[in-house]
Design a protein that fits this description.
The protein has 397 residues and is mainly β. The protein has 2 domains: 275 residues, Neuraminidase; 103 residues, Macroglobulin (MG2) domain (Immunoglobulin-like, Sandwich), CATH 2.60.40. Strands 1, 2, 3, 4 and 25 form a 5-stranded antiparallel β-sheet that branches. A 4-stranded antiparallel β-sheet has the order 5-6-7-8, with no helix packed on it. The longest helix has 10 residues. The two termini are 13 Å apart. The relative contact order is 0.15.
Length: 397
């Protein structure tokens, strides 16, 4: 199972409670599916629980053939790419309320993915050889990143060396670019009928979901076809991964989302045919949300310490964590305070101590370097003067 897979994407099957001293966290898994319907309105983004049940329509406003879903957790928003309108629209990540446009003027935006540079990479479907675009996470346009375009581009991933790969549905191919966006020619130009999503596994092989080819196909690091990794699918588009390696893939031919294990073996129809009105799944996101305990909120109000959300988030391999110490803490208390800042993995195991020293009042910033750690959810916890607060961050490689 690839550690390079988008990790808005690292989730749990069931609710999990982590205990950090007096603080607890409730984690909930949610599954989001873009429904392209019959490639005509009405379009919608559906939401399911961790078992693929209890469907509800999460978003059905200002969609125009939606293509991909990206949660920007630190901003509390989710963005949706819309092929027909050339817009990436923005919504409240909790309620689905429309908040405006993230970006406009795009030639049929399809897949979106956050890179190691903490920029959003956006593929384009229409136009004459449209290049890959990059945006800051506030929607500010950065550049046209690739030296050449990829027509009907709809799959994106990076290898371990930072080279970028983009699939072309109409071209039945995958093109390779170096880390600076320079063209390295076609990586795959055979054995494909209409590639959509692509991703690398831990062995460095590229897996390609072949929309018209009834399989997910495996290619080696030289672009040579090796085998069919998953069979028995048709009109496959949309993919995401559970922490245990299980894979969810949209299967348009049966209006369902299928689950396969990490070896490509069929497990079940995770979202059965037509559940929630599902017609044509074309994007899937497994999302984990975390709620702080009541004790955390009390400690914030009583002490006026502040632990900020890390930035960037998701990150790779470094991120910055800011915290503030009040100028007046308690009568007679000294103004410098012993601060402990630790990082834990999703199982509650301590990864590292970032800070264990005295700090004066004011704002402070430390950097967390996750080089050598696997993609996933991590927690950072500030402990100072009986104040304890913990926040979640996502490492995306």
């Amino acid at each position: 199972m690839s550690t390079a897979t988008t990790f808005f994407k690292i989730l749990l099957f069931t609710s999990l409670t982590l205990l950090f001293t007096s603080n607890s966290f409730s984690q909930t898994t949610e599954i989001y599916v873009s429904d392209a319907n019959n490639f005509s309105p009405p379009w919608k983004i559906l939401k399911f629980d961790e078992n693929g049940e209890n469907p509800e329509t999460f978003i059905d406003t200002l969609l125009a053939w939606p293509q991909d879903i990206v949660f920007l957790e630190d901003q509390g928003v989710v963005i949706i790419s819309n092929l027909n309108s050339g817009r990436i629209t923005k919504y409240n990540s909790s309620t689905g309320e429309y908040l405006g446009d993230f970006a406009t003027g795009i030639s049929g935006p399809t897949r979106m993915k956050i890179g190691k540079d903490s920029l959003l990479y956006v593929l384009q479907w229409t136009g004459s050889n449209p290049p890959v675009r990059r945006y800051q996470l506030d929607g500010t346009f950065v550049d046209e990143f690739t030296s050449v375009g990829v027509p009907q581009s709809i799959g994106i991933d990076w290898d371990a060396d930072g080279n970028l790969y983009v699939s072309s549905y109409g071209g039945a191919s995958v093109r390779k670019f170096d880390p600076n966006g320079n063209d390295l020619d076609l990586f795959i130009n055979s054995n494909l009928s209409g590639p959509t999503n692509i991703w690398f596994d831990d062995n460095g092989d590229l897996l390609v979901s072949d929309y018209n080819g009834t399989a997910v196909k495996r290619f080696d690091s030289g672009g040579n076809y090796l085998s069919d990794f998953i069979t028995g699918i048709h009109l496959s588009e949309g993919v995401d991964f559970f922490p245990n390696g299980n894979i969810l893939i949209g299967n348009g031919a049966t209006h369902s989302v299928k689950m396969f294990d990490s070896n490509g073996t069929y497990v079940e129809d995770f979202i059965p045919s037509g559940l929630g009105g599902l017609v044509t799944p074309n994007a899937i996101v497994i999302r984990e949300t975390t709620a702080l305990s009541v004790d955390d909120n009390k400690s914030v109000s009583l002490n006026n310490f502040q632990l900020e959300q890390n930035y960037p988030n998701p990150f790779n391999p470094t991120t910055k964590i800011k915290f503030s110490i009040p100028s007046v803490i308690a009568s007679g208390a000294k103004q410098s305070q012993l601060i402990t800042l630790k990082v834990f993995n999703v199982l509650g195991k301590e990864i590292t101590t970032l800070v264990n020293e005295e700090f004066s009042a004011g704002e402070h910033e430390v950097e967390f370097d996750a080089t050598g750690l696997p993609s996933g959810i991590y927690f950072y916890q500030l402990n100072a003067n009986n104040f304890i607060e913990t926040k979640k961050m996502i490492l995306l490689k």
